[in-house]
From TrEMBL:
Name the record gives this protein: Amidase family protein
Domain Amidase, residue spans: 82-504
Amino acid composition bias (Basic residues), ranges on this chain: 1-25, 34-48
Matching PANTHER family: FATTY-ACID AMIDE HYDROLASE (PTHR43372), FATTY-ACID AMIDE HYDROLASE 2 (PTHR43372:SF4)
Length: 528
């Protein structure tokens, strides 16, 4: 029985082969016949289909988002060298007027771009930001270069290694094309110093680009790099983002590692706990991408936390608290309109927005001011005043005049109060996972307004940007996204979320951006 079955299978196999040969012969004959009719040579087998050509985004390369740029380089639509060259050309065109980038790393960047293209050609593993041009703020260590931090006397502070944030960005494949300007000791909300001079706002030279990451904000808004690194201890990411019409996230403290080997001493405890590294970019998606690249572990930062970048989504429509503004803050109508517009964008995106009081914003701000001012006065003031300009002294004295002088018992009570404030906000986020708040309640001030008087400094930090600086003492994540233009200048709003919930803040920012648009596209139309 088995032999008969095997014989049948063999016979069937022979018939199949015979039929296949006949079909093949007939096909060849048809091809040959067609060739005789057309005069073209017969093709024995169909040519392999070529892969579709990689598509380039529209417009010049310097206008692309970081997400688009990374994808285009990865697919072969553009080389890293061509991308970097486009950004360097843009830098040469606009930076002489803006003074945003103060250290030109063109040669180093082009060498890195050539290496990036070779790595791709070999089929090597590519990072999140492979070949993507970025800038770094000149107050973190960049190996082999002085960490000036806006101070000429810091010329001997040569970085023996890259800071963690620089190392992480390079590991992700990003290419640094320049270092951006910052005020002296990164301690002002306005970007000017005796070493490099004043950085201008690309929207209007008569208003500030913000600080202390003002060079970063000005550069990325103008099209110099797709992502700009910055940092924030009192608003130094969110304030420049507002002034320059770009997006950012001040992450939860501990999210992105920080350390400068060039520093002569460790940072005071509260200064470290209130400071955060972060990205500025034209698109919220780019901010999210950069945050992922920056957040990798570095053993040099003992405060780094391996928290997930995405948490559990709150149930039902997410409730957003539109923060009630204290009565003593004089709100410009343009700011109130921008907040309402942002709230409307969120409502249309499925959020539920209610105007409510947030936990003790005034007490939180005063705690921030008292802690940072007293800590700086004890640990750094004498050394800073010896090597800084009169403008720095004016700005610093203005900050000090609003702070309470704390003895040791008062200092301990202030640091204890910080824990109470954080707890109150964390409980608030149980009901309202996102807070929509102003960045400033006034139009953007002039480029050197903090040097007018001590009273003007108080007015700015307490009366105008209270909702920015207060968040630092809480260590909470805060995103900023542009919403509208008023008199040709951008207005941004702030989205605050619970600890390590940058994803919620960025989701809300992205919902606003989707309806408000990317404002820098309008800026480029006005720039020569």
């Amino acid at each position: 029985m088995a032999k008969k079955t095997a014989t049948k299978k063999k016979t069937a196999s022979k018939k199949a082969v015979k039929t296949s040969r006949k079909t093949s012969t007939a096909r060849k004959g048809a091809v040959a016949k067609a060739a005789r009719k057309t005069g073209k040579p017969a093709v024995k087998k169909a040519a392999a289909r070529k892969p579709a050509a990689a598509r380039r985004p529209n417009g010049p390369a310097w206008q692309w988002s970081a997400v688009e740029t990374a994808a285009a380089i990865r697919s072969g639509a553009i080389s890293a060298v061509e991308t970097v060259e486009a950004h360097l050309e843009r830098m040469r065109a606009v930076n002489p007027k803006l003074n945003a980038v103060v250290v030109d790393l063109s040669e180093e960047a082009l060498a890195a771009a050539h290496a990036a293209d070779k790595q791709r050609a070999k089929g090597g593993e590519l990072g999140l930001l492979h070949g993507v041009p970025i800038t770094i703020k000149e107050n973190v260590d960049y190996e082999g270069r002085p960490n000036f931090n806006g101070v000429p006397a810091n010329k001997d502070f040569i970085a023996p290694s890259d800071s963690p944030v620089v190392r992480n960005l390079k590991k992700a494949g990003a290419i640094v094309i320049g270092l951006t300007n910052t005020p002296e000791f990164s301690f002002r909300g306005f970007t000017d110093n005796p070493l490099h001079g004043l950085t201008l706002n690309p929207w209007d030279p008569n208003v500030t680009c913000g600080g202390s990451s003002g060079g970063a904000g000005s550069a990325v808004a103008a099209g110099i790099g797709t992502i700009a690194h910055g940092n924030d201890i009192g608003g130094s990411l969110r304030w420049p983002a507002h002034c320059n019409g770009v997006a950012t996230i001040k992450p939860t403290q501990g999210r992105i590692p920080a350390f400068n080997a060039s520093a002569t001493a460790e940072r005071p405890m509260l200064a470290h706990l209130m400071s955060a590294q972060g990205p500025l970019a034209r698109h919220v998606a780019d901010v999210r991408l950069a945050l992922e690249a920056m957040s990798k572990r570095d053993p040099r930062d003992p405060w780094w936390v391996p928290a997930p970048l995405v948490g559990e989504r709150p149930k039902g429509p997410i409730k957003v608290a539109l923060a009630k503004i204290p009565e003593d803050m004089d709100v410009d109508p343009s700011v109130r309109a921008a907040l309402r517009q942002a709230a409307d964008h969120l409502e249309r995106s499925g959020y539920r927005v209610s105007e409510v009081d947030v936990p003790d914003i005034n007490g939180v701000w005063q705690t921030w001011c008292d802690i940072i001012t007293n800590e700086t006065a004890v640990m750094q003031e004498a050394g800073m005043l010896k090597v800084t300009s009169e403008d720095f002294h004016k700005a610093w004295n203005g900050m000090k005049s609003k702070a309470n002088v704390l003895d040791l018992p008062a200092w301990m009570r202030a640091t204890a109060a910080r824990s109470g404030h954080i707890r109150a906000w964390q409980l608030f986020f149980e009901d309202y996972p996102v807070v929509l708040a102003p960045t400033t309640v006034k139009p953007t001030p002039g480029p050197r307004d903090d040097t007018v008087s001590a009273e003007r400094v108080q007015e700015i930090f307490w009366g105008e940007i209270r909702f920015i600086s207060a968040i630092n003492v809480l260590g909470l994540p805060g995103a900023v996204v542009p919403v509208a233009l008023h008199d040709g200048k951008p207005i941004g709003v702030q989205l605050i979320a619970g600890r390590y919930r940058e994803d919620l803040a960025l989701d809300a920012a992205a919902a606003i951006e989707k309806r408000a648009g990317v404002l820098t596209h309008r800026l480029w139309e006005t720039m020569v």
